C-alpha cells in the first residue's frame, strides 16, 4: 500500500452521498476512489474546466492576455482522440460566451471595483491588491485549494481499507501500528475559483458556474456556498464578507435581429441584450425617443428582464451567511461524515432519469444488479484509483497547455486573436456542413442484436 497521508471529502462527495450511495461508494476517497482513465468524457465537466481555466488565467497571471486565447490553449492541450463528443461545438460556444463576458464584466464591475486578491502560499495570508502590488512571494488568489482537518481519524490496513474511526485523538490506541494499521486523518478539501477584494477592502469568494440557465432559487441553501464560507475563515484566518455566485448561461449572444426591410425586429425570443438593442436604436434613429413606439416598448421589455445582477446570459448574485449558519454547516459536515464512516452502511443505488448523463458508473450499476461478473470486469478496465494523498486537483491536461513561454522556446507564438476567432468560425462552418450532410442521409434504425 502506498503511504496515505490523509483521506479527503468534498462538497461534491457530500452531494453524491445524499444523491446515490452506490455512486458515492464507487467514487469517494473513503471507499472505492475510482476515476476514469484518460480525459474527462462528460462534455459538461470538460467544458466547465475550459471556462474555469480561461478565467483563471485572465484574472490571475494573464499570460495569454485574453481569456479566448486561454480557451484556444486549453483546446490545444487535447489530441483529437482525447476530446469528448461535442467538444468542437462547445469550443465555438465558449468563444462566444467569453467574448460577451469581457464586455459584461467591465460594465458590471465598475461599481464594486473587484480585484483578484493576492495570497502568500506559505502563510495563507491574503493581501488587498488595491494596496499591495504583486511580488515574487505573492500569487494571485485563483484556484485556491484548501485542506482542513476535521478532527477525525481512521485506522487503515495495508490495502487501504478503513477499519475503526476515532473522533477524539485521545481515543486512538497506541498499539494500532503494531497490528499492521496506520492512523490517517480525514480532511475537508475544496478549491475556490477566485478570491477578490472590493474597493472597501472586503474579501469575497467568487465562483463560476456554467449552466443552461441561471438558477437563483437555491442560493440561500446552497451547500457549496455555506461550506466554502466556513472553510475560508478557518483556512485564511479572517471572515469573508460574502460569496459571489457568477453564472454563465450556455448561449451565444446575438446582434439584434432585423426584418427583410432592414427594420429592427421586435421578436422577444431573440438572444440579444438591452445594451446591444439600445445601440442599434441609436444608430438608426439618433435617440431612443425618436424611435417608433413599438421599438421603444420592445427596448423597455429588455430593460424589465435585466437587473443590476445581470441578464439572461451572465449574472452574479451576492450571498452572505450568518455566523450561526456557518456553525450549522460544520455540524452538517460532521454529521454526514459519521454516516459515511458507519461500518454497516449498505450502499444501494438511487436511480433517476439523470443517471444516463451524470453518472460515470451507470453501466457498472446495471451489471451489478444483473450480477454479470464479465461485464463488471470489462467496465473496471477503464477505471483506476486516484492517489489518496493528493493535495489538490490533478489535471493532466495542464502539462500539455501551450503556454506562451513554451511556444517562444520552440520558436512559435500564440496566434493573434483574429486568427483564433477565424479558426473558430471555420470550425463552426465545418460543423454546420457536417450536420447538413447527415440530415440528407437515409435514416437507418440499428438494433444491436441484429448487428454482425
Walk me through the structure.
The protein is α+β, with helices and mostly antiparallel strands and 452 residues long. The chain contains 14 helices and 13 strands. Strands 1, 3, 7, 8, 9, 10, 11 and 12 form an 8-stranded mixed sheet that branches. A 3-stranded antiparallel sheet has the order 5-4-6, with no helix packed on it. It has a two-stranded antiparallel ribbon with strand order 2-13. Mean pLDDT is 89; it is low at 433-452.
Characterize the largest beta sheet: strand count, sense, and whether it forms a barrel.
8 strands, mixed
Structural class: alpha+beta
The chain-level mean pLDDT equals 89
Low-confidence stretches: 433-452
What is the number of E strands?
Answer: 13
Query: What radius of gyration results from the CA coordinates?
Result: 25 Å
Tell me the distance between the termini.
45 Å
| Percent in strands | 15-25%
Helix content: 25-40%
Q: Shape, please?
A: globular
Number of helices: 14
N-to-C series of helices and strands: EHHEHHHEEEEEEEEHEHHEHHHHEHH
Amino acid at each position: 500500500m502506498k503511504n496515505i497521508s490523509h483521506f479527503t471529502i468534498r462538497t461534491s462527495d457530500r452531494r453524491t452521498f445524499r444523491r446515490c450511495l452506490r455512486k458515492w461508494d464507487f467514487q469517494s476517497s473513503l471507499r472505492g476512489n475510482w476515476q476514469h482513465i484518460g480525459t474527462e468524457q462528460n462534455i459538461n465537466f470538460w467544458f466547465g474546466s475550459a471556462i474555469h481555466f480561461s478565467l483563471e488565467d485572465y484574472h490571475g497571471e494573464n499570460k495569454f492576455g485574453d481569456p479566448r486565447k486561454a480557451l484556444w490553449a486549453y483546446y490545444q492541450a487535447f489530441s483529437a482522440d482525447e476530446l469528448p463528443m461535442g467538444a468542437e461545438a462547445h469550443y465555438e460556444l465558449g468563444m462566444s460566451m467569453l467574448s460577451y463576458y469581457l464586455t459584461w464584466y467591465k460594465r458590471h464591475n465598475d461599481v464594486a471595483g473587484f480585484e483578484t486578491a493576492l495570497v502568500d502560499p506559505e502563510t495563507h495570508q491574503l493581501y488587498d491588491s488595491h494596496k499591495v502590488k504583486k511580488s515574487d512571494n505573492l500569487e494571485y488568489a485563483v484556484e485556491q485549494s484548501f485542506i482542513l482537518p476535521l478532527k477525525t481519524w481512521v485506522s487503515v490496513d495495508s490495502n487501504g481499507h478503513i477499519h475503526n474511526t476515532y473522533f477524539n485523538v485521545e481515543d486512538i490506541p497506541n498499539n494500532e501500528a503494531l497490528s499492521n494499521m496506520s492512523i490517517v486523518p480525514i480532511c475537508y478539501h475544496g478549491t475556490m475559483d477566485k478570491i477578490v477584494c472590493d474597493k472597501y477592502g472586503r474579501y469575497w469568494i467568487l465562483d463560476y458556474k456554467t449552466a443552461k440557465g441561471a438558477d437563483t432559487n437555491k442560493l440561500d441553501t446552497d451547500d457549496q456556498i455555506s461550506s466554502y464560507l466556513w472553510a475560508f475563515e478557518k483556512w485564511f484566518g479572517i471572515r469573508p464578507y460574502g460569496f459571489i455566485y457568477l453564472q454563465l448561461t450556455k448561449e451565444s449572444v446575438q446582434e439584434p435581429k432585423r426584418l427583410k426591410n432592414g427594420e429592427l425586429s421586435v421578436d422577444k425570443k431573440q438572444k440579444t441584450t438591452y445594451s446591444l438593442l439600445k445601440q442599434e436604436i441609436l444608430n438608426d434613429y439618433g435617440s431612443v425617443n425618436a424611435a417608433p413606439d413599438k421599438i421603444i416598448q420592445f427596448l423597455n421589455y429588455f430593460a424589465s428582464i435585466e437587473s443590476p445582477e445581470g441578464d439572461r446570459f451572465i449574472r452574479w448574485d451576492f450571498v452572505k451567511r450568518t455566523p450561526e449558519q456557518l456553525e450549522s454547516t460544520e455540524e452538517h459536515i460532521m454529521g454526514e461524515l459519521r454516516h459515511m464512516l458507519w461500518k454497516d452502511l449498505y450502499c444501494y443505488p438511487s436511480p433517476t432519469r439523470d443517471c444516463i448523463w451524470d453518472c460515470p458508473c451507470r453501466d457498472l450499476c446495471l451489471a451489478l444488479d444483473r450480477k454479470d461478473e464479465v461485464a463488471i470486469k470489462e467496465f473496471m478496465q477503464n477505471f483506476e484509483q486516484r492517489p489518496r494523498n493528493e493535495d489538490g486537483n490533478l489535471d493532466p491536461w495542464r502539462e500539455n497547455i501551450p503556454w506562451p513561454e513554451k511556444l517562444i522556446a520552440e520558436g512559435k507564438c500564440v496566434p493573434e486573436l483574429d486568427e483564433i476567432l477565424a479558426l473558430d468560425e471555420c470550425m463552426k462552418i465545418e460543423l454546420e456542413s457536417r450536420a447538413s450532410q447527415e440530415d440528407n442521409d437515409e435514416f437507418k434504425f440499428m438494433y444491436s442484436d441484429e448487428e454482425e
